[in-house]
């Protein structure tokens, strides 16, 4: 059975070779057929044109095809094939209205905004970008309207610029759309009386006087003390009455009267010796001596002098006057030679007994420094 199958395969192969020899090798023929439209808008940057390969003549013999029938490929969409893209725009309304909804004149502005311009022959927007129009204000966006009030005024009192009047507030209409009232019902308010309503003025002269400060500034001992005064108008002129010679609030000064001089404490100074005494160093308790010198007596109840002229006192010597103190230290034997009659190296450690002060000299070594030294033990 197997022999028959092999015989059939061999005969088929011979027949195939014979047929190929009878037909010369020719490659197939074909062409790319491109779609009439691109995949999407070109403005997206992703638009493609799809092509499909169509075999127009099949291969013969041992010929072959470069592409399969129905195979596809893509390429960027040519500009002349980009589909038209219409302009996209709309009116954008302001968030705030102006005017009054109660008076039916509240409006807000709306501006035309183009989101996408027309491309590739698309239809243009019917309105120019940036155009503004006024539209009616929605009820929920009405501007706040303050309440409306009147005032029942009393007659004016007083004369001239000091004339005033008072009145009681009456609310005529409450606030709307979140508006508030400046006053409450029945509230009493006051304002300067309008010129046309002022009572007939009588001829009265202005009255005023200088009000002097109770105390002076500066010191009388050096003639720098002054006393200030402010002019206070106690009554305005009216009619053809005389004006005051000075403006209300005007100021002036004069040398301080003796009975108004401010207290001055005793004036003094301490004169300190050039050098400190009482020891060789500040660390050992040196002191500086000062002598009290009175420069002026107290005036107008000022504080008396604490010391008599020529009194002395001592204070701890200030660092600026302390004599310099050098660093003091010594080398101490750390590791010694224990055996007698032996010569060897021993270790010494530096110990600081007192640090330098007031600009003194440094020690020859730092605390804990070590050195080796040859030592002979006999």
Notes on the structure:
The protein has about 375 residues and is mainly beta. The chain has six domains: about 1-80, no CATH class; about 90-140, no CATH class; about 150-195, no CATH class; about 205-260, no CATH class; about 265-320, no CATH class; about 330-375, no CATH class. About 5% of the residues lie in helices and about 35% in strands. It has one helix and 18 strands. It has one helix spanning about 1-20; strands at about 30-35, 50-55, 70-75, 90-95, 105-115, 130-135, 150-155, 165-175, 190, 205-210, 225-235, 250-255, 265-270, 285-295, 310-315, 330-335, 345-355, 370-375. The strands form six sheets. The chain has a three-stranded antiparallel β-sheet with strand order 1-2-3, with no helix packed on it. A hairpin with a 7-residue loop joins β16 (about 330-335) and β17 (about 345-355). The model has no long low-confidence stretch (mean pLDDT about 85).
Q: How widely separated are the two ends? A: 125 Å
Tally the beta strands: 18
> Which structural class should the secondary elements be placed in?
mainly beta
Q: What does the radius of gyration come to?
A: 57 Å
Structure at a glance:
The chain is mainly β.
Give the topology.
Layout: H1 2-22, E1 29-34, E2 48-57, E3 72-76, E4 88-93, E5 107-116, E6 132-136, E7 148-153, E8 164-173, E9 188-192, E10 207-212, E11 226-235, E12 251-255, E13 267-272, E14 287-296, E15 312-316, E16 328-335, E17 343-354, E18 370-376
Antiparallel strand pairs: 1-2, 2-3, 4-5, 5-6, 7-8, 8-9, 10-11, 11-12, 13-14, 14-15, 16-17, 17-18
């Amino acid at each position: 059975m197997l022999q028959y199958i092999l015989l059939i395969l061999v005969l088929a192969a011979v027949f195939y070779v014979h047929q190929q020899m009878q037909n010369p090798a020719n490659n197939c023929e074909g062409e790319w057929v491109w779609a009439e439209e691109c995949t999407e808008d070109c403005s997206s940057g992703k638009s493609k044109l799809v092509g499909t390969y169509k075999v127009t003549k099949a291969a013969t013999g041992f010929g072959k095809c470069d592409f399969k029938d129905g195979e596809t490929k893509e390429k960027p969409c040519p500009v002349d094939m980009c589909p038209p893209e219409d302009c996209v725009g709309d009116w954008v309304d302001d968030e705030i209205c102006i005017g009054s909804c109660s008076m039916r004149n509240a409006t807000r502005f709306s501006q035309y905004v183009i989101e996408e311009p027309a491309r590739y022959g698309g239809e243009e927007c019917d309105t120019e970008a940036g155009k503004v129009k006024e539209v009616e204000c929605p009820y929920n966006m009405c501007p706040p309207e303050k309440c409306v009030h009147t005032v029942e005024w009393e007659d004016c009192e007083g004369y001239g610029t000091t004339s005033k009047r008072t009145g009681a507030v009456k609310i005529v209409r409450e606030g709307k759309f979140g508006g508030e009232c400046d006053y409450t019902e029945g509230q009493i308010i006051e304002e300067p009386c309008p010129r046309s309503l002022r009572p007939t003025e009588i001829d009265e002269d202005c009255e005023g006087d200088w009000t002097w400060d109770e105390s002076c500034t500066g010191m009388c001992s050096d003639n720098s003390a002054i006393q200030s005064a402010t002019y206070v108008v106690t009554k305005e002129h009216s009619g053809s009455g005389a004006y005051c010679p000075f403006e209300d609030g005007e100021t002036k000064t004069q040398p301080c009267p003796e009975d108004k001089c401010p207290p001055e404490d005793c004036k003094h100074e301490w004169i300190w010796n050039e050098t400190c005494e009482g020891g060789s160093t500040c660390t050992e308790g040196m002191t500086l001596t000062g002598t009290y010198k009175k420069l002026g007596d107290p005036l107008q109840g000022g504080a008396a002098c604490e010391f008599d002229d020529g009194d002395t006192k001592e204070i701890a010597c200030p660092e600026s006057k302390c004599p310099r103190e050098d660093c003091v230290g010594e080398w101490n034997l750390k590791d010694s030679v224990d055996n007698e009659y032996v010569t060897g190296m021993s270790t010494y450690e530096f110990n600081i007994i007192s640090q330098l002060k007031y600009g003194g000299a440094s020690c020859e070594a730092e605390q804990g420094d070590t050195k080796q030294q040859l030592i002979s033990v006999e």
